[in-house]
Amino acid sequence: MGLALNDILGRVCSYNKDFSIEDIAITWINYKSTNKSIFKGFGFGINNKKMIYPASIVKLVYGFAAFHWIKKGRLLLTDEIINAVSKMLSLSSNNATSFLIDLLTGTTSGPRIEGELWDNWKFQRSIINDWLHDLNWEELNGINCCQKTWDDGPFGREKEFYGFKNKNRNKMTTDSAARILEQIMIHINYQKNDLNLRNFLKRNLSKVVLKNDSLNQIDGFLGAGLPESINLWSKAGLMSEVRHDSAWWINSQSLQTLLVVFCDGEKYSKDTFFLPLIAKEVYEFNMKYIIKD
User: Fold this and answer.
1) By the number of CB atoms within 10 A of the CB, which of 1, 70, 144, 257 ranks highest?
2) Which residues constitute the domain of residue 251?
3) 78: domain CATH number?
4) What is the mean pLDDT of residues 86-91?
5) pLDDT number for residue 194
6) How far lies 81's CA from each of 63, 74, 128, 224, in Å?
């Protein structure tokens, strides 16, 4: 898989002379079933520990946190929370994300504040990072998930919280995104009344459906490189400086794939071919070589 991924990335980068492997991070894991319910993962990464601004990929973390807050009794599961998490993950709503971060951390946006009020606010807003640290997962070391996502950018206390030269901006690795997505997909035994994160990430690859949804997270992302009939769960991230995607799909009854790709730079943000090509190559490699094994 390592040789294949380096070969795939080299070939896909070659169609644009401005693309560089240094700007791209990938985590690719295949999961083979050992029985009907247990999957064993094996994979490879390139720049997979490099810290990159995650854009809306961070919403996976906030959804995962909401699930655990509810399980621990810190939040009461309501129709409003279900609706907000659904819109955050399925539609990538920044408004829903803002609402959920306020609930998770006990903070609100607003004008700048000072002194003890400001110190308390910063302490509260760091609660999600503290929880991530306490999970003691190697893949999460050093990541920062404490900022809201924006359409036009932060103002007031939110802007100040970004720090000098945006030093406190969100940052993640493809490994950290992969670990969170893996947890959501195969390590949570969802009960009837749980916040079912997996359902909110399910995508429809029908071209008819996608044509009528200009904000879909498929066109220009990994899902666009996969067969229309495939079962796919994903969460994309896009802004003026990055284009990312995290995806899980079913190749066959015995093989499933997790693929996270971060592309750091304005040239990738504007490109709609790179991510679909990566997914297409990974899918075809799996079908040709891995399933036969």
Assistant:
1) 257
2) 2-290
3) 3.40.710.10
4) 97
5) 92
6) 10, 13, 17, 30
